[in-house]
Amino acid sequence: MKIEKGGLPDKIFGIDTPIIMLWLEPIGLGAVLIISMIAVIVPKFGEISAKMGRIKAVMAKTEEVNQKRVYLQTVDQDEVKKNANKFALALLPEKSSYLLVRVVRNAAAGVNFTIDDFSISMGDIKAEDAETKGASSFDKIPVVVTLVGPRENYLSLVNSIEKSLPLMSIDSFDMRTVGNTSLVTMNISAYYLRDISDLKVENLKLVDLTPSQEEFNLLSKINDYRTLAIEGNTDSGNFIDFGRKDPFFTP
Fold it and tell me: Which one, of 141, 101, 145, 144, lies nearest residue 125 by Cα?
């Protein structure tokens, strides 16, 4: 092996050094070009993929909006408003145990029962709030009432309370009879829907707009319930306007 003046052997791996030197420059230039293309084009592929993903998301959203539009066009709007109003009547318009007492009084009056005494425990209300606040949007309002009326009407009293709007549930029941008079003590609960301030209508899906069979069954059931007057009078006789937005309002 001979060493040329430049310090390189005359052959490298059996190949003449001038030939290797001849190809070394274009190979190096090609490598630089390839690396440059990779550095520029690969990020572009990422941007293209991201844009394609956004396009698909927009197309899916557009299709969903069109489905909701078609569905809403086929629905009887008057029927929707009537059903929404019925569901609204099933709830207390105000979170007040005293309001619930007035509702019970109205339900009992139809079967000749009157309220003899009632009890409200703020501790019970707070306990109910703690149990239901994380699980649902409803607050359970409890009250204990003692009613007096004709003995033969106590079953009608129970029926009147359980089949009236706002919806009320009898959690416990105790009755004493003296002659023809019954003294009935009940632990009664009703429900109040908290304001849903973070509800975004545009995020509702088609399944959210479509009533389930369970909701249809509930609506069919409460359609037969008697609606009680729940806006009573104050001590001064002035009408109470709760001023609360209907949570089921549909424009």
Answer: 141
Residue 43 has pLDDT above 90, yes or no: no
The dihedral through the CA atoms of 102, 105, 109, 111 has a sign that is: positive
* Six token digits for residue 105: 């009084």
Instruction: Provide the token pair at 11.
Output: 């052959």
Res 137: pLDDT = 75
179: left (phi over 0), alpha (psi -120 to 50) or beta: left
Most confident of 35-39, 121-125, 139-143: 139-143
pLDDT tens, 50-94? Answer: 888 888 888 888 888 888 888 878 888 888 888 888 888 888 888
CB 120 within 8 A of CB 143: yes
Q: What is the pTM of this model?
A: 0.60
Let me know how long the chain is: 251
Cis bond before residue 18 (omega within 30° of 0): no
Question: What distances in angstroms separate CA 144 from CA 69, 120, 169, one per listed residue?
Answer: 47, 7, 12
DSSP calls for 122-189: HHHHHHHHHHHTTT-SEEEEEEEEEEEEEGGGHHHHHHHHHTEES-EEEEEEEEEEETTEEEEEEEEE
Indicate the pairing of strand 15-16 with strand 164-165. Answer: unpaired
